Amino acid sequence: xSRLLPHPLLSLALAVMWLLLNAPVTPATxxxxxxxxxxxxxxxxxxxxxxxxxxxxxxxxxxAGTVLVDVVRSNIDVAKVILGLNRGERRTGFVSIPLDLRxxxxxxxxxxxxTGAPGTLWVQYESATGRLLLHVLDLTDGDDWVRRIKDxxxxxxxxxxx
Amino acid sequence: MTDTDIPLWAACLVVALALGGAGFSLIGAIGLxxxxxxxxxxxxxxxxxxxxxxxxxxxxxxxxxxxxxRLVLRDLLIGLFLTVTTPVTLILLGRAAxxxxxxxxxxxxxxxx
Lengths: 162, 113
What we know:
The structure holds two protein chains of two kinds. By secondary structure, chain A is mainly alpha-helical. Chain A folds into two domains: 8-45, no CATH class; 57-160, no CATH class. Chain A has helices spanning 8-21, 27-39, 41-45, 57-83, 104-116, 145-160; strands spanning 93-98, 120-126, 131-136. In chain A, helix 4 runs antiparallel to helix 6 (145-160) and helix 5 (104-116) packs across helix 6. Chain B is mainly α. Chain B has helices at residues 8-34, 38-41, 46-68, 76-104. Chain B starts with 7 loop residues before the first helix and ends in a 9-residue tail after the last helix. The interface between A and B is large, with 37 and 37 residues. Chain B: The chain crosses the membrane at residues 6-32, 44-64, 76-93. Chain B: GO terms for molecular function: sodium:proton antiporter activity. Chain B: Keywords: Membrane, Transmembrane, Transmembrane helix. Chain B: This is Multisubunit potassium/proton antiporter, PhaG subunit. Chain A: It is found in: Cell membrane.
């Protein structure tokens, strides 16, 4: 953002982390949290990362809600698969998804979502073609995995990291 | 920690959350044995890293909040850092397996994306 505060989001996150680790809040911890949040991001300058620009806080909240629900649901689904509670044939396999998302931070968040939800694994991303290879534990639902990833996760991420 | 006095309902909640989290982690561990191929097995430990972890962290937050008499959110950081770092390990493992299977020309090697 500026020379005085190079990574405001990182500063905020570090200060909050410091306060959580040193709760209850006293003037001394508040001062130290401010110092940590202000000074540590200067170390990041040496790495010259692109600035993170996250827009649309409403979309971020909605995406977080979607992911929360999906993670709980897929936890239960995978637990059922492991315990053998599902009847019928289970197909497992790879799915190839053409992505429009190109922003490195957006792709990072997408990889955390997909790998964090049990039942899907991020196998390979080809940056030249923008194609992503996933491994899906339970493919019984058929071909709507492409739609599911694109509608539920990629579209909000495209809005956030525009 | 042994002399703490927290109300019965809070103790029950802590036990339920901790047992639930441990249960999901256990199912994940069983999955490591029961599933057959490498790519299937990678999915199993994520149970412990997501819902299992979240429930145990919630139990810890409730316990220490009741014990210290204020809202203790410190443990949420464990959840944050686990969530951000597990995918790194899993993706690295997946990439290593992909490389091996393609080089050896195995039948279940991942197709090109």
